[in-house]
Amino acid sequence: MRLSILLIFLSLAGAAQDSVYARRCIHQLTDRSFFGRGYVKNGLPKACKFIVAEIKKSKVLPLFGDQYTQTFIHPVNTFPGACEVKLNGKKLKPGIDYIVSPSSAPAQGKCGLIKTDSIHFAGRTKRNSIIVTLRNKLTFSVSGEMNDFCGIELNKKTLTAAPEQIELAIKSRLVPNFESRNIGCFINGTAGSDSLLVFSAHYDHLGGMGKKTFFPGANDNASGTSMLLDLIRFYTTHPPRYKTVFLFFAGEEAGLLGSSFFVKNSPFDLKKIKFLINLDLLGTGNDGVMVVNGALLEKEFNILTAINTEKGLVKEVKKRGKAANSDHYWFSEAGVPCFFIYTLGGVTAYHDVMDIEKTLPLTDYPDVFKLLTAFVSAF
Question: What is the model's pLDDT at position 31?
């Protein structure tokens, strides 16, 4: 399709993006009541309920028969109770001074520590083996396994003395059959074709660590979830040419589990997908955007960059090759043409307690919205 036609769609998109709505969604998704959209305090189910309520307001159609959700089961190691650490007699701040290793076993007691190499220390309480690791940055994640030892990761930047003694009370629990839910809806197209266009984003995050500490996940990925909700609102008033599907995945942080399950249990033939765009980490943009698979799909990448150049949107559209770093991956492996787009530059908080809505600038959020809607109109 000629670029001039694309720009008509681009101007329409620019008028429809709602930054106030986007900010409200991110604020809600990162609220303490959602506790990091994870596996304790019903964080993930609460996020699911919020998203389903939002898409119902737009009167879009459910993807899974008469249901908006698709349930899958997976194991996850959780930290629902005590999470206290003293080092050399000093009480440490969770999330700031330390994190518990995601696959850590529970532990209780006090012991001395022996240095085993430049960053590792080991000890044993009456019942538990302890391994302490020094980190330049604390980066939490999700594990589906529990080790036979308790792991503590210390922030080197806040450490004032070499670890010699540790006292801890860590409660962890392996949940073997946690129920997560993907969310899906669609809007019928005007072309009368059975081809599909798909937008996706994961809405889960890391949850919490103990009774009070949680990981808000503003950039990762309340920003992408908000963008998806924003796109739904847009396409309900600007009907797409092709049937357009919107997928909100759970279990991404646990190993791309939701998208893997969907690809194996899709309610439609994946061969019908003309293109899929996965959205993650959309809260910045000082240095432009990165397009995963851009180096593989040159025709589509050139269309994207031409739109951006013509309209002067984001600073730069960069490309890279294949990467298993978000939910596009399993679709790509199944032969679906797709991009994973994320913003570059700005705040550096990632998988930590500082990824909060208050400091998320949404620098290029409106321009990324324009770029996405114009690109999709090329099909």
Answer: 98
